[in-house]
Structure formats: C-alpha cells, structure tokens
Amino acid sequence: MVRNMKVALITLIILIILAIIAIIVIINDAASISEENVNKMIEDSVERKNEITPLSWENIKKRFYSNPLPVNNIGDPFVLKASDGKYYCYATSASDGYKVWLSDDLVNWQYAGMAFRREADSWAVSDFWAPEVVEYNGKYYMFFSAREENTKSLRIGAAVSDSPLGPFEDVLKRPLFDFGYAAIDASVFIDDDGKKYLYYSRDCSENIVNGVHESHIYGIELADDMLSVTGQPVLLTQPEQRWEKMSGDAWRWNEGPIVLKRGSIYYMFYSANCYADATYSVGYATSESPLGPFKKSEQNPILKSKLYPDMTKSEPLISGPGHNSFALSPDGKELFIVYHTHTNPSLGGGNRQMNIDRIGFRDDGTVYVNGPSLSPQILPSGLGGFYNAALEAKVSASSVKPGHKAESLVDGELGFTKASTDYDWVSNGETEGAWVCLEWDDERLIDTIVLFPSFSDDRRIDEGQLIIDDGNLINNVKFDLDAEKPGASVIIHFPEIKAKSVKFVVKKASEGVQEVGLSEIYVMGKTLDEK
Q1: What are the tens digits of pLDDT across the range 33-60?
Q2: Domain spans in the chain, listed from the N-terminal domain onward
Q3: d(Cα 452, Cα 455) in Å, to the nearest integer?
Q4: For residue 374, how many C-alpha atoms fall within 13 Å in the half-sphere facing its CB?
Q5: In the CATH scheme, what is the code of domain 67-372?
Q6: Structurally, what CATH architecture does the domain formed by 50-61+384-530 represent?
Q7: DSSP label at residue 350
Q8: In the sheet where 265-272 sits, what is the strand order?
Q9: Over the stretch 76-112, which tens digit does the pLDDT of each residue have?
Q10: pTM of this prediction?
C-alpha cells in the first residue's frame, strides 16, 4: 500500500511539472504573439479564400470628373436644368451680351452660341454681367445686369425667349425697375405658393455708407408676368461679418444672391469681397420668410480659396470661388453648387472658369460644401451606370468616439473643412486594428470602393485593407494622397464581385496619431436584379 502511495505521489508530481511547463509555454507563446506585428495578426485572422489584386483606376476614369470644367474665360456661371432634361450655362462672357453652353450631364459642355446680344438701339450698352434664366409657363426669362446708356449707371434688365438657347429679346426696351441707384446680380425665386421674388445687389459703385462703398442685398416681389415688380425693395443683408471685410476698408460687398427653400426655411447664398481677388468667397443666411429677416451662418464662409498645404507659395492653390448657382444631378437626387474660380490663381481678375461640387444639408440644417475640389470626384448621380450602394448598408465599427457616429460614413459630407471633422467616423482611442463595416441584407454587385480621409491630420490613416464577405482580401490599401489636390480620395477598383459586406481595417496610422477617422465611404454597385 505504501508503494502504491509513492507511485501516486510521483505521478502527481510529474503531472504538476508538466502543467507548469505547459503554462510556461503558453505564457511564452502569448508574449511572442504580443511582440508580433499587429498588421500580421490582422492578416492571419482572415480566412483568405481569395486575395484580390486591384485593377488600375484608369479603367474607370470616366466615372469621375475633375474641376475646373471646360467653360472658361467667364464669370458668374448660372446653370439651368430645363424641362427637356438638358443643362444650359449662362455667364458673364461677352461685351455685348451672353454666351450659352449646353450639356447632357452637367460635366461635359459644348459652346452653343450667343443666347442674347444687345440691339443697336438698346438701353444696355456695356458691362453685361451675371445672367440668370428661369423657365416659366413654356417661356424662358433672362434677368441680367448692364450699364444704361443715359445714366451710365448699372441696371437690371429682362429678356424673353421660346428656347433656352435663345435668342432672348429685351421685350421691355428699358430696365426692369429703377430705384435711382445701381443694381446688379438679379436672381428669381418662385415659392411653393406661386409667389415670385427677385433678389439683387445694390451695387457699391453708388452706395456709400459712412464713407465706405458697400454692396447690399435686397429683395422684392416679382409680378406674375415676370416683367414687373410690386411693392418696395427690402434690405436683406449687408457686409458685417469679419470674413466679408477682407478686401479692405474702402470697398465691401454682399452680392450674387440666390435663394433655395428647404422645408420651411429659406436659404440665401451670396458672395462677399472683391470678385477679382482670392478673398472672394460664398456664405449663406437663413430666414422663415422669403423677404427676411435673414440671419447669417456662423460657419461662413462655406466656400473659399485654398492655400498650398506646405504654405511655401504666396499665391493660392484655388482662388476666388464665388457667385454661385445650383443644379440637380441627372436623376435629381444630388444637389451641386456651381461657381467660378480664377483661371490663374496668382493673377485673379476677371478671367474665371466654372466648377461644380456637391452641396448638402446636415440634420441641424447647416450647410456643407464638398469643395472647392481639384481631385477626381464621382460623377453626379444618374450617370455612369452605377450608384452608391453604401447608402443602403448597415454601418458598424470596432469603436466610435463619443459625439461621433459610424453612420457619418454615409452622410454625404467629405473632409473639406474643419467643421466637417465633427461629422467623421472616429475610433475611440483605437488605431491599428480599428475597423468599419458595411452590410447589406441582399448581395450587391460591386467593383469599386472609394475611401475619403478626414480633414484632420490627427486622424490620418497610412494603410489599411479591405475584406469583402469575410473571405476576399484586398491588401495594402495605401493613403498616398496628393495634398495639392483638395478632395483627394483612395480609389480601389477590382473585378466585379457579389458581396453582402465590406470591411475596412486600419493596418497603420500616421505617426503620433491617437485615433483614426474617415469622412466617407462610397461603394460603386448595382443590385443583382438590375444586372
């Protein structure tokens, strides 16, 4: 019996020793794993059914556009999307009237001739500026600015045509109205109840306030005939915010008004500072009534010049974005802001070119602009045979910083401004290994994913990987972006694949970064029943 007890004791000791050895091995393995590169762990955790090699984005360049667009040596571009589905651009463009450009898609434009040319005996003799055209009851009404022969002062005129291409006829043979002062930049808004309003700028050439030349914005009701006004003009805005006084103390501007309505709120967009220099920018004001009072946004300006990122050059990278209009995408789902910039940023002046960028409204009613951009941007919706499948996806993330949302990845706002950083997806203290995921109930046929970085360098990602349906891996997704191309994104194009999920995993964050973020994800796809 004693012998059996000794054998049992020896066996127990051996088992304890083996257990200790096993624990040591586990600890050593764990220590070894912790020292492994985190990126290797991420890759090894993926069951790689298929590693996908990205294709050249050159194959899909036609799905993108880049600013500026091919309408140049102009100013104050106004785009009309007419009832025929085509786009017409009118602009400050000739010494005796206005040229017109035609487009089927808002991106590719062709010159289509003179839409309006002054007659030999016209009251309007020079300074043909800022035309806008309204389609109403089967006719097209052009409102324009020009210098009157008798007074040598600026006035607003109206011309009518049966075609958006013109020719437009100055049917009044005189200015639309005359309140005894210079007026320019007419813009018409037709409200839901059918009432019509005309907004314009009382020009600073003849408006002197306390020794300062100032342009002020006014509004007045337009009659149903579209060719006369009723009542008296109402002062709506004047230069008062700090950014509106950057052209100096002698001359100040609020000009180029245009009004949109969203719900019950009226948004008036306008430009401030001198059109010829880099301070020219766009702001907006809101009101519950078409004739005010309007309150200017504290986030103004919402569209302004861009400097070179390294600050080594004195001239701007993009100069003088302003005097905007708006146009809907071909399918009517996206809103674009149309504006001009200086053709030569170092010179400024009157030679300008047309640009378009997406514009949107946040949940709190404030406005964002995905611009000014120089890098390739996705075509307006309804073009190219694809759509943004990300908008249909359920969005999740490994973590989300308090005050942010994973759903911000599909809110439409890109990282163009400091204000946009409040609408990023941001990890909650994670860097390497942080992830975001898009999931669909049904399969989507996809071939391109576009990742938009945060505006904040403190959230910068250097490298990541895409996992499609937990089995298809696209490795080494580099964020090698051109800092001199505002709006740059990471475009990953690959062979068509059916997918119910897309996950982006961060492999490497920029040095010193404590959290990572993205402003937007776009997935180019087509539902299988459309294929």
Answers
A1: 343 444 444 445 445 458 999 999 999 9
A2: 50-61+384-530, 67-372
A3: 9
A4: 17
A5: 2.115.10.20
A6: Sandwich (2.60)
A7: S
A8: 254-262, 265-272, 281-287, 295-296
A9: 999 999 999 999 999 999 999 999 999 999 999 999 9
A10: 0.90
